[in-house]
Design a protein that fits this description.
The chain contains 13 helices and 17 strands. The strands form 4 sheets. An 8-stranded mixed β-sheet has the order 5-9-10-17-16-15-12-11, with helices on both faces. Strands 1-2-4-3 form a 4-stranded mixed β-sheet, with no helix packed on it. The longest helix has 23 residues, at 98-120. With 427 residues, the protein is α+β, with helices and mostly antiparallel strands.
Length: 427
């Protein structure tokens, strides 16, 4: 405007409005360019009409750096109005947007809340190797690498090591990277994510783990509200109230889903069939892999049903089939085809897998042999069983999934600073 201008200054993620006046400023306005980095001297003036309650009148400016070219994305609006691919392609720049920054302030608070809770409950934080000689869960979803002419792998989880450390500290946790070579190009998977794992010894039941996780999540959600109210307000986050998380067995959950499927009218079922989703969300077939786990659509439907019945946005599902769980999962003595394990679902997606582990050497060897595994390949792991381990168990949670579901995002990549998937290796 004639004689003055408004200048937006971004400082530590906050956008502050400054006023440039020809009468007060000791520099020409033309020196300022979009995205230039400056050190400024300002006069602070009380202003009731301003959202902050004051105006900053620019007096002097030192230009520390200036951009070489025009920025390809607009970041100074309320949100970055572009596709997910463009958002991620220019991630070092788009993360400067207030909404993008707010995502990771909330993620920081979640991490801080869980870490402080675990430390207060006598868990010791550990840091385990990410280059390993054997996969904790086996299968095809493992990254192989050449380690000085020996075959090695990127760790799928800290599972073996956190079990080992239970024999040392009794309660341990780790927050660190996890690698999964899953060839999925879908909204819920990352090939590298941040795992929040804990393991505890001398448990009475796997339900001790569920109780511990419930209290940990209460603390995490409370920390988000306390530490970053501005980010919560900006992103309109619905912080869930956690009292007691409902729980049902895997078989009961499948029966509930089949019961709900039967309520769908024939015309509606036909419309769903035409959309190509009836197999996933309305009629889970008997037998096969789908009988051992939930499809993504079943997870969403189950969460909706539980919320309607109980008001909870979380639900524990227990006693998963043994065929679907790793070799170290303890089986239910009364129902050997089921395991003393659980998943935690939140707003339509699994965010945690956990359970009780086998602590008997003979039981572990027998189960490995039943699965045609060679115990000789796991001698360092089996050492803990051979020399005495307490009843123990633990869980693993994906930090990005938890963040994504809390913020009700459409893609878990939005909750990862620099996501890695089957297409993306940069930036």
């Amino acid at each position: 405007m004639s004689g003055f201008a408004f200048v937006l200054l971004r400082s530590c993620g906050q956008i502050v409005q400054c006023v440039y006046s020809e009468e007060q400023a000791a520099f020409p306005l033309e020196e300022l360019t979009d995205k230039c980095c400056v050190r400024a001297a300002v006069y602070v003036k009380e202003e009731s009409r301003s959202r902050s309650g004051f105006d900053l009148q620019l007096l002097e400016v030192q230009i520390l750096s200036a951009p070489e070219e025009h920025c390809p994305v607009v970041i100074n609006r309320r949100s970055v109005d572009t596709s997910l691919e463009t958002l991620l392609d220019f991630r070092p720049i788009t993360l400067r947007n207030q909404r993008e920054m707010a995502i990771f302030k909330i993620q920081e608070a979640l991490t801080d809340g869980m870490r402080s809770f675990l430390q207060a409950n006598h868990f010791t934080e550990i840091h385990t190797p990410k280059i390993v000689s054997e996969g904790a869960e086996g299968g095809a979803n493992i990254f192989r690498m050449n380690y000085f002419n020996r075959e090695a792998y990127l760790a799928q989880s800290p599972q073996f090591y956190k079990q080992m450390m239970v024999g040392v500290y009794e309660r341990v946790f780790e927050i660190g990277p996890v690698f999964r070579a899953e060839k999925h190009d879908i909204s819920r998977h990352l090939n590298e994510y941040t795992g929040i794992d804990f393991e505890m010894g001398f448990i009475e039941s796997f339900r001790d783990l569920m109780a511990m996780e419930t209290e940990m999540l209460k603390k995490a959600m409370g920390t988000v509200s306390e530490q970053c109210p501005e980010a919560v307000s900006l992103l309109r986050v619905r912080i869930p109230e956690i009292t007691e998380i409902p729980c049902l067995k895997f078989g009961e959950a499948k029966a509930l889903l089949r019961e709900e499927s039967g309520r769908i009218s024939a015309p509606k079922a036909e419309r769903i069939r035409q959309n190509g989703t009836i197999r996933d969300c309305t009629q889970p077939p008997e037998g096969g892999d789908s009988a051992l786990d939930f499809s993504p659509e079943e997870e969403k439907l189950l969460c909706r049903l539980i919320r309607e019945k109980t008001g909870s946005e979380f639900v524990f599902v227990t006693h998963y089939p043994s065929a679907k769980r790793p070799f170290y999962a303890m089986e239910d003595p009364d129902h050997p085809k089921e395991t003393l394990s659980f998943d935690l679902l939140f707003r339509g997606m699994e965010i945690t897998t956990g359970g009780q582990r086998i602590h008997s050497y003979q039981e572990q060897i027998e189960k490995m042999l039943r699965r045609h595994m060679n115990p000789e390949h796991f001698q360092s792991y089996l050492m803990i069983h051979r020399y005495g381990m307490p009843p123990h168990g633990g869980l693993g949670m994906g930090l990005e999934r938890l963040t994504s579901r809390l913020l009700e995002q459409d893609n878990v990549r939005r909750a990862s600073l620099f996501p890695r998937d089957i297409h993306r290796l940069t930036p």
